[in-house]
Amino acid sequence: MDKSWMLLTNSQSKDYLKKVNDFIEFAKHSMGDENTIPCPCKKCMNSNRRTLRQVKSHLNHSGIDKSYVFWVHHGKTLDDEDDDHVNVDLKNDVALILYMRMTMMLFSK
Questions:
Q1: By CB distance 3.0 to 4.6 Å, which of 22, 36, 55, 76 could disulfide with 49?
Q2: Nearest to 102 by CA among 94, 87, 40, 70
Q3: How far apart are CA 28 and CA 36, in angstroms?
Q4: 17 Cβ contact list (under 8 Å, min separation 6)
């Protein structure tokens, strides 16, 4: 699935809103019968579970967490073919961001 929409700066553009709908459909299909899914918006950052309707609203108003390029909380794995278009530098940057977040969480307690 194309993830270039995640880099769009205008979260009210037609392209962004269409891709949010596509993401919601993807998540609905991937997550099966679950009533809630992790919300990948900038505020929740997959920490809070929300209904699909709430996730859509959060993505439309807050935007998506741009570092969430591997949709592991929504049915993907790091080895999925769809993620081959993500370049190695971006993968390394995301790995570093995740490491830094985990470290901050551990030491903030």
A1: 36
A2: 94
A3: 9
A4: 11, 60
